[in-house]
């Protein structure tokens, strides 16, 4: 199979030099073995892994509902399965390649797990294990055995199918004869012979989520095979003992896949992925911790602590009301069986599982977080399992064990309020702003991070997801992005983006990065931050400078230097909101309702503010000559299959129709140095929106600098080159915020380009004495003005702070 660019880069992973902070870098992940015989430990591992599939039989109404949801799917798969033929299901033809056989194993796994679940619809059928064994042997003979060639997606052979097969085997238990168990395990032992390396590509070292999956598969299959060496190898793969720690999953690095030193998580070298591959990794580690707990070989306390600490640091910032935020989910946006809520549920399940074996105080901390997240999610409640037919072998849904574990763990814990937070993750070009009510995040790209990922038939409308999308998450609209948003949204007009009204660019299989390095921001405190983007379109013809300034109740959005020579009309989307099926949310323009017929475009001139009921207020900040606003309410229809045609992930062709409200600024064809300035007030009332007019002053909105005066004595600025705003001057590109606090004047700065060595800051005014400064700040002069040098080299876009008085 030919290597792609990522494969070539990763072949040399064992020799990579990385800056790392590691819990036991390169040390074995297991404690010293205890006891003369490994058989009892192997039995514990197998029994624990079986519990992860079928649960413990804990009685509750929520568990009954989860069993019923499992029954609905399993009964359908079982009734359609014909074990007298090689083709077990009429819609899944047999034959070589990875197109259909993973779904076969997923369906068989579902049937087996339902049979093994106490109280299920299939549990009372004594003949069922025989049918499952026959089907397993048919699949071994026709689809997946130790002699099968890997044709198509390597993942199916080395991770996906091994999981479903092992889960089927443990569900059957002693109803699977030893000879049959040995036979069907052979391909797993072959295709996952070494958890450290890719079988399909000689020499390729596994990293991130793929390594974690293989570690768990190796441990469970080793226990089933009675192979102590294999179990030990699976545990040792977590810290990459074989590779001297080069691909250690606990390592915080500044390059490559996995966890980064600032809390970012990267997979496929250039894709921000806490919301999928990061979850897969955490889920595998949680399961690995659980199944080996109490055995002679288990993860060491230091290794376990690292993953426990990653919960609040890496993942939790991107969870809103039980849903994982869109900008960290990569191509998985398009999966019908992996909405943001599905991803959020998988994360909660992993946290609950980690907590079950964690020592105090980590156990109480994790349990409290899980209880809060479960309480917050009311649109798709974690404990109310339903509609499992959407899942076809990708993300594993919450089921019976997850409900049992969560109810048992979180029962003593009351829900708590979400904390205020503004976090910047510059090593994956992501940020999150959480106010305790609404939250926001951005989808941007740079030379470092891709615009989108679209491979294996997925994310077919992902063209502009990295072009400056402003995602807003509201407590009253928890299902906004999960409710058929991606199949139905006009994906050429995502909120916050500036794009041409023309055919989108071709999708590229190698995740495309941009030609500019300025993408990043600065944190002032838990309630304020500034972010900037030097935007250029995929074809390089459209460019703009864009900034977002975040406050406790608003996001100020500036755009400048908007230039395009293609001749197509260019527009910026203020809003494009999913109102649901037949949504009737009222839209006001300067207090007057928009009564335009559905599907009719209306242009509003001179408006100062708009308000969309249940969503937000919008204040136009570009002065008396403010440009016209185009309004359109329309119904849009699409299907999940239209955005995901992947062989094992594709959605259904069933049409979905949702109503959208567009609010758009038109820059016309051939814009040259066009601009915009507006504020979004998520959750605001009409009165609050009206009162916000004149509240913020735009100080600059040019190709060189964008700046606004916020509430109090706080100023935000993004410098795309050397420049000055108010009394502050910088020597080069920077994101800055400054203002008076209880401790004096506070200045924060970052280098969004991540390319400079030092940024010099000159401050005019009375504050000339440094009261406190980070180690990266050097005082150059204090008279006649304050001059400091901020060493930004090696900080990878992190925030630097100094205070003066």
Automatic annotation (TrEMBL):
- Alphabetized GO MF terms: lyase activity
User: Where does the record locate the signal sequence feature?
Assistant: none
Q: Which InterPro entries match?
A: Chondroitin_lyas, Gal_mutarotase_sf_dom, GH-type_carb-bd, Lyase_8, Lyase_8-like_C, Lyase_8_alpha_N, Lyase_8_C, Lyase_8_central_dom
Q: Which residues form the Polysaccharide lyase family 8 central domain?
A: 422-685
Q: Name one Pfam family in it.
A: Lyase_8
Keywords (alphabetical) are: Lyase, Signal
Residues passing through the membrane, by range: none
Is the keyword Cell membrane assigned to this protein? no
Designated name of the protein? Polysaccharide lyase 8 family protein
Give the species this sequence originates from.
Streptomyces mauvecolor
């Amino acid at each position: 199979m030919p290597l792609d660019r990522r494969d070539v880069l990763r072949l040399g992973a064992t020799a990579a030099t990385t800056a790392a902070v590691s819990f036991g870098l390169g040390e074995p992940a297991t404690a010293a073995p205890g006891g003369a015989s490994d058989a009892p430990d192997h039995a514990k591992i197998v029994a624990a892994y079986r519990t992860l599939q079928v649960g413990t039989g804990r009685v509750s109404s929520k568990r009954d509902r989860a069993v019923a949801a499992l029954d609905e799917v399993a009964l359908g798969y079982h009734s359609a399965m014909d074990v007298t033929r090689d083709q077990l299901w009429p819609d899944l033809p047999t034959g070589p390649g990875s197109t259909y056989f993973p779904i076969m194993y997923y369906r068989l796994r579902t049937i087996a797990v339902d049979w093994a679940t106490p109280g299920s619809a299939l549990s009372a059928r004594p003949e069922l294990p025989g049918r499952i064994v026959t089907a397993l042997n048919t699949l071994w003979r026709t689809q997946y055995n130790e002699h099968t060639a890997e044709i198509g997606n390597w993942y199916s052979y080395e991770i996906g199918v091994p999981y479903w097969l092992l889960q089927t085997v443990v569900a059957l238990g002693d109803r699977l004869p030893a000879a049959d168990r040995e036979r069907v395990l052979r391909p797993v032992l072959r295709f996952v012979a070494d958890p450290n390396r890719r079988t399909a590509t000689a020499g390729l070292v596994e990293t991130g989520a793929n390594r974690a999956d293989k570690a768990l598969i190796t441990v469970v299959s080793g226990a089933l095979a009675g192979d102590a060496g294999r179990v030990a190898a699976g545990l040792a793969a977590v810290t990459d003992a074989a590779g001297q720690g080069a691909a250690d999953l606990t390592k915080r690095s500044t390059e490559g896949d996995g966890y980064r030193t600032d809390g970012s998580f990267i997979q496929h070298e250039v894709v921000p992925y806490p919301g999928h591959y990061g979850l897969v990794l955490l889920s595998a580690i949680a399961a690995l911790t659980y199944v080996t707990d109490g055995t002679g070989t288990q993860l060491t306390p230091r290794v376990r602590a690292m993953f426990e600490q990653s919960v609040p640091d890496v993942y939790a910032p991107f969870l809103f009301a039980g849903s994982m935020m869109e900008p960290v989910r990569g191509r998985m946006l398009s999966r019908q069986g992996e909405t943001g809520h599905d991803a959020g549920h998988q994360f909660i399940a992993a946290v609950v599982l980690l907590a079950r074996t964690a020592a105090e105080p980590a156990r109480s901390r994790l349990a409290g977080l899980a209880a809060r997240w479960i309480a917050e999610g009311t649109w798709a409640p974690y404990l109310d399992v339903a509609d499992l037919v959407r899942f076809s072998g990708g993300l594993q849904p919450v089921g019976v064990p997850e409900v049992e574990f969560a109810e048992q763990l979180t029962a003593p814990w009351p829900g708590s309020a979400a904390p205020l937070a503004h976090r910047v993750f510059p090593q994956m070009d992501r940020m999150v702003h959480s106010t305790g009510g609404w939250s926001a995040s951005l989808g941007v790209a740079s030379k470092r991070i891709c615009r989108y990922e679209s491979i294996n038939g997925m994310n077919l409308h992902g063209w502009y997801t990295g072009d400056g999308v402003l995602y807003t998450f509201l407590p009253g609209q928890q299902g906004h992005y999960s409710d058929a948003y991606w199949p139905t949204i006009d994906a050429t007009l995502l909120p916050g983006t500036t794009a041409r009204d023309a055919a989108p660019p071709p999708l590229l299989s190698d995740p495309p990065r941009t030609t500019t390095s300025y993408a990043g921001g600065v944190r002032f405190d838990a309630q304020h931050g500034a972010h900037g983007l030097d935007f250029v379109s995929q074809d390089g013809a459209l460019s703009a400078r864009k900034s977002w300034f975040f406050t406790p109740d608003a996001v100020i959005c500036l755009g400048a230097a908007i230039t395009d020579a293609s001749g197509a009309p260019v527009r910026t989307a203020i809003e494009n909101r999913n109102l649901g099926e037949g949504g009737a949310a009222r839209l006001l323009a300067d207090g007057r309702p928009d009564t335009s017929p559905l599907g009719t475009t209306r242009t509003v001139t001179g408006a100062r503010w708009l308000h969309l009921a249940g969503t937000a207020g919008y204040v136009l900040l570009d002065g008396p000559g403010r440009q016209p606003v185009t309004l359109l309410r329309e119904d849009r229809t699409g299907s999940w299959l239209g955005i995901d045609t992947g062989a094992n992930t594709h959605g259904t062709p069933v049409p979905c129709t949702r109503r959208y409200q567009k609010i758009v600024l038109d820059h016309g064809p051939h814009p040259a140095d066009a601009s915009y300035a507006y504020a979004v007030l998520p959750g605001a009332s009409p009165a609050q929106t009206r009162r916000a007019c004149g509240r913020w002053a735009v100080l600059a909105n040019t190709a060189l600098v964008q700046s606004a005066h916020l509430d109090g004595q706080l100023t935000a600025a993004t410098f795309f080159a050397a420049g000055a705003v108010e009394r502050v001057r910088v020597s080069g590109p920077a994101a800055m915020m400054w203002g008076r606090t209880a401790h004096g004047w506070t200045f924060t700065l970052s280098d969004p380009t991540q390319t400079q060595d030092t940024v010099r800051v000159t401050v005019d005014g009375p504050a000339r004495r440094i009261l406190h400064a980070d180690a990266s700040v050097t005082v150059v002069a204090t008279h006649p003005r304050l001059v400091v040098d901020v060493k930004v080299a090696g900080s990878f876009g992190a925030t630097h702070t100094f205070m003066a008085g």
